[in-house]
UniProtKB/TrEMBL annotation:
<dbReference type="GO" id="GO:0005829">
    <property type="term" value="C:cytosol"/>
</dbReference>
<dbReference type="InterPro" id="IPR004547">
    <property type="entry name" value="Glucosamine6P_isomerase"/>
</dbReference>
<feature type="domain" description="Glucosamine/galactosamine-6-phosphate isomerase">
    <location>
        <begin position="9"/>
        <end position="230"/>
    </location>
</feature>
<comment type="similarity">
    <text>Belongs to the glucosamine/galactosamine-6-phosphate isomerase family.</text>
</comment>
<dbReference type="InterPro" id="IPR018321">
    <property type="entry name" value="Glucosamine6P_isomerase_CS"/>
</dbReference>
<dbReference type="GO" id="GO:0006046">
    <property type="term" value="P:N-acetylglucosamine catabolic process"/>
</dbReference>
<keyword id="KW-0119">Carbohydrate metabolism</keyword>
<dbReference type="Pfam" id="PF01182">
    <property type="entry name" value="Glucosamine_iso"/>
</dbReference>
<dbReference type="InterPro" id="IPR037171">
    <property type="entry name" value="NagB/RpiA_transferase-like"/>
</dbReference>
<keyword id="KW-0378">Hydrolase</keyword>
<dbReference type="GO" id="GO:0004342">
    <property type="term" value="F:glucosamine-6-phosphate deaminase activity"/>
</dbReference>
<dbReference type="InterPro" id="IPR006148">
    <property type="entry name" value="Glc/Gal-6P_isomerase"/>
</dbReference>
<protein>
    <recommendedName>
        <fullName>Glucosamine-6-phosphate isomerase</fullName>
        <ecNumber>3.5.99.6</ecNumber>
    </recommendedName>
</protein>
<comment type="function">
    <text>Catalyzes the reversible conversion of alpha-D-glucosamine 6-phosphate (GlcN-6P) into beta-D-fructose 6-phosphate (Fru-6P) and ammonium ion, a regulatory reaction step in de novo uridine diphosphate-N-acetyl-alpha-D-glucosamine (UDP-GlcNAc) biosynthesis via hexosamine pathway.</text>
</comment>
<dbReference type="GO" id="GO:0005975">
    <property type="term" value="P:carbohydrate metabolic process"/>
</dbReference>
<dbReference type="GO" id="GO:0042802">
    <property type="term" value="F:identical protein binding"/>
</dbReference>
<dbReference type="GO" id="GO:0019262">
    <property type="term" value="P:N-acetylneuraminate catabolic process"/>
</dbReference>
Amino acid sequence: MRLIIRQDYDEASSYVAHYIRERIIQFAPTKNRPFVLGLPTGSTPIGVYRKLIEFYEAGKLSFKHVVTFNMDEYVGLPRNHPESYHTFMCSQLFDHIDIPKENVNLLDGNATDLDAECRRFEATIANLGGIELFFGGIGPDGHIAFNEPASSLTSRTRVKTLAYETIIANARFFDGDISKVPKLALTVGVATVMDAREVCILITGAHKSVALAKCIEEGVNHLWTVSAIQMHPKGLIVCDEDSTLELRVKTVKYFKSIEHVHQSLIGKENLGLQGEVLSEDSKRRRRSHISDEGWSEGAITGEGYIEEGYHSSSPPKRSRLRS
Ligand SMILES: N[C@@H]1[C@@H](O)[C@H](O)[C@@H](COP(=O)(O)O)O[C@@H]1O
C-alpha cells in the first residue's frame, strides 16, 4: 500500500484528481472498452470533483468513455431530494462534464425490491469486467461507503442500517436534525470496493486521524472497514498533514521517504542505473513498477539505496529492480 501525504486538503485533492486523470488517459478508453470508475460522495471528494471539472473545461480530460458506479445511496430519500447522493453527484460532477447519462450508475434507494437492486448493481459491474479504479472516502469511524464497523470484509452490495455515529455525522446535511437523516442505505460492500483493480482513498482532517492510524498501523479489522485496503495489491491512500496526527513519526517518515525515492526515479525514468539510456521496453517495465505499491523490497535511486523505506549507502541484499 502507498501513503501519499500532502500539506492540506487542496493539495491532497489535486493529487487524487491528477491521479484519476492520468489513469483514464493511460487506459485510452473507447466506447467498447470504457474506463470503469467507482466514486464516493461526502464533503471530502468535492475538491477532486472541482479539479476534474477544470480538466474537462480545459480540454485536458474527457469522460465520454468513462462509466461510473457510485458507492452508496440513502434508502427512501426522493431521487431529487437536495441531499440524495444522486442530486449530489449531478450538481458536484456529472452536470459539468461530458459523461453520457447512460454511463452513470447510481443505486436506486427507492427501488421496490432493494435486494434485487443491489444484485442488479453488482451484475452491471461484473458485465463491464469490473471496476478499474475505485476512488473513495471514509467516515471518522473508518467506514468505507456505508460499510459500518463490523461489516463483513467480504460483503457485497446490500442494504445497511446506518450506525448512530454516521447518522450524527451526516445530520449536518439535514439541518443538523438527526430525525431527518435516513436510517437505511444501499451500499457497495467492502469486497465490491476491494475487487477493483486499484483503490484510492482520500482522507483529510484531524477528525479522521484515528481512523487513518488504525488503517495504516494496525491489522485488518472489521471495526475499521477501510483497513481491508491492506490486502489490496494496488491500494493508495492520499491524506493531508492534519489526518496524520495519530500516526507515529516513524510511519510518516517511512512513507515520505518512499515517495521521495519514487519521485526521484520518475525524474530519471529515461536512465538506467549506470546512466545508460533505457530501451522503450525497459522504460515500460520500470513505469509499471513505479506505479506499483511501493519500494519496500529494496529499490535503487541515483543517490543510494533504500531498503524497507530507509535510505542507506550500501546495496540491499535482495534487489527486485527490474530494469
Ligand atoms: N457514505 C458516505 C461515505 O461514502 C463517505 O466517505 C463519508 C464521509 O463523508 P465526508 O467526506 O463528508 O467526511 O460519508 C458517508 O458516510
